[in-house]
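Protocol step 4 of 6: structure prediction from sequence.
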Amino acid sequence: MKLQLIRNATLKLDYAGRTVLVDPYLAPKHSLPSFTGRSPNPMVELPAGIEDILDGVELVIVSHLHDDHFDSVAMQRVPKHLPLFCQPGDEATIREAGFTNVTPLTGSATWEGLTLTRRDGSHGLGPVVELMGSVMGFSLEAAGEPSIYWAGDTVLYPPVAAVIGDTKPDIIITHSCGARWDGDLIVMDALETVAVCEAAPDAIVIATHMEALDHATITRQDLRHAAMDQGIAPSRLVIPADGETVILGSP
């Protein structure tokens, strides 16, 4: 399989002969408001043109409707006929944007040999969760491919730890920028990402959602230093640059 980090949470996966786009965030640099007053968002440009990013895409997955996961540019540019999986409750908004093949992922679903399973996430803990709203992660499996757990916009909390322990994925994809909202952590930071590595010693952890938004508190360098301090090798914690492609073999 091939995994290309586009920017933020946006991934392009070549998996079991299919091409999957996850959480398309296609806005130009500095075209959206700041979260903290530090910088307009996104803080970096896309690493490739939108046509190149969308080239070959056969399936779209949208974890939730925050602008940095499915923005107005994506709603306009992603082909409306493509099959799209989303969390329950978001399907009406996505259909109103013109998408014609939208399926809320309530449990598990199979598409063209790929099995998707919805996983719980918590976009923070405590009162901030109500403000952030519901989110989902997912597991992805196919014959002959490594199993993937895409945790999504979540902190490390018991349901995430349970998925890791119960399913033992080959690859775990985390959002690791340590974003905060009014001081509350709303996605994993360096310590929680290292804890994921320690909880899954046989998995490769791929840290994404970094250095694109102004409410992030952890850089790629911060995360690498924290991992090295705990003896986590770069081969076990992969921190791709925007546009970088990671190639992973069979399980």
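Step 5 (inspection) to follow. The chain has a mean pLDDT of 97.
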